[in-house]
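Hypothesis: this fold can be encoded by more than one sequence.
Test: take the structure tokens below, design a sequence, compare later.
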């Protein structure tokens, strides 16, 4: 398993933007040039499929207000009586927003373009990145985005993250589906796509990044991750450490109880062992 992790949020800023206020002003300026290029070197051969992730730190998707700001009924295409749970991203100019809520509104919108040495473009497949259960049962195949604030700058609602394709149903927007499966921890990775060709050792990859997602307001970080998998799956150090810790603890306790049992075995079936039986032998005859 091979992993390449590259933090780019600071690298993709003008050199003279140092303070938080300057960085926020830059990222919110729609007229500024937000493109940048970073170079990655493949440490050893990466066999396809190569998974491309974006990683965010200090981003609390598990915040109660954030998690509740959605309408699962609306996402399934069911009739909805009100969208109060989605406030303030529920209506615009008196019309319902589809999909409503803070989660959809804050959809990650940085983009990546890969080019290997020699100038050939490396395509990234963004299909098949979401869970099938989410696609089939949680997102409608007939409902399309409407009045989505990120698609139109008019109105009183501020622009959040990515725009949505208003001609495609929600079940086909897998980037949205991946984003709306909220993370439990403030540091998380989400799948962006798959590279379906091998990358050779020491190969140089040039990545063109459109750096537009605002993590500067809360001083979070953004990272680009390229990773392969093994027969054991992908890299998740937290779960691996947790499973090993619990497993070793259980083995240690089992060994401890076994040694105690060997030293002081319980005399099963010996009623004379019970002091109460010695004092009251007649109870055995009843």
């Amino acid at each position: 398993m091979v992993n390449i992790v590259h933090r780019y949020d600071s690298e993709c800023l003008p050199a003279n933007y140092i303070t938080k206020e300057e960085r926020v002003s830059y990222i919110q300026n729609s007229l500024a040039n937000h493109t940048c290029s970073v170079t990655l070197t493949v440490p050893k051969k990466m066999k396809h499929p190569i998974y491309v992730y974006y990683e965010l730190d200090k981003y609390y998707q598990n915040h109660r207000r954030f998690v509740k700001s959605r309408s699962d009924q609306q996402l399934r295409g069911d009739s909805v009586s009100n969208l109060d749970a989605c406030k303030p991203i529920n209506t615009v100019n008196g019309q319902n927003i589809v999909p409503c809520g803070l989660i959809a509104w804050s959809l990650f919108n940085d983009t990546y373009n890969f080019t290997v040495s020699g100038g050939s473009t490396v395509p990234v497949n963004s299909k098949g990145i979401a869970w099938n259960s989410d696609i089939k049962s949680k997102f409608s195949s007939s409902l399309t985005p409407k009045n989505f604030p990120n698609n139109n700058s008019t109105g009183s609602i501020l622009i959040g993250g990515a725009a949505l394709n208003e001609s495609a149903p929600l079940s086909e927007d897998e980037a949205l589906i991946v984003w709306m499966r909220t993370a439990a921890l403030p540091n998380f990775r989400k799948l962006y796509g798959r590279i379906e060709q091998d990358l050779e050792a020491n190969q140089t990859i040039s990545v063109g990044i459109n750096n537009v997602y605002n993590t500067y307001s809360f001083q979070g970080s953004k990272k680009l991750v390229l990773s392969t998998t093994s027969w054991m799956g992908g890299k998740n150090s937290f779960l691996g450490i947790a499973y090993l810790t619990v497993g070793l603890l259980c083995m240690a306790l089992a060994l401890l109880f076994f040694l105690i049992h060997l030293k002081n075995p319980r005399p099963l079936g010996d009623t004379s062992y019970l002091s109460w039986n010695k004092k009251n032998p007649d109870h055995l005859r009843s």
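Residues 240-281 form one domain. The chain has a mean pLDDT of 88.
Hypothesis status: open.
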